[in-house]
Design a protein that fits this description.
Blueprint lengths: L3 H5 L19 H9 L2 E4 L2 H10 L5 E4 L2 H10 L4 E2 L6 H9 L5
Parallel strand pairs: 1-2, 2-3
């Protein structure tokens, strides 16, 4: 919806929702594969909550930053890794630092 400022300036706006915190739908195969994961990457606290509710907290939580890591800790994950400074490369590096491959 246009705000009063954009209306006063004659600017037309359209709201587009591009982010949601609603968990994706999983079929039985996706849930089975999720239960086998040793490491799970989380980019948001809402993703942590959905995973913990559906699968549990036995995997290592590889979080993009401290906010997601805090959510993982609160959800009950016992092994959590995250970079000092959030960011895609640092996040990937924290996963590689687990020396799993």
């Amino acid at each position: 919806m246009p705000t009063p400022v954009t209306q006063a300036r004659g600017i037309e706006t359209e709201r587009v929702d591009t982010y949601t915190t609603v968990g994706a739908t999983w079929d039985a195969e996706a849930e089975r594969m999720a239960r086998e994961a040793e490491v799970v990457s989380f980019g948001s606290p809402s993703a942590v909550h959905v995973w913990a509710e559906r699968v549990g907290t036995s995997a290592t939580a590889a979080c993009i930053g401290k906010t997601s890591a805090d959510a993982a800790r609160e959800a009950g994950f016992s092994r959590i890794v995250y970079p000092e400074s959030p960011g895609l490369q640092a996040w990937a590096d924290s996963v590689l630092g687990l020396d799993l491959w």
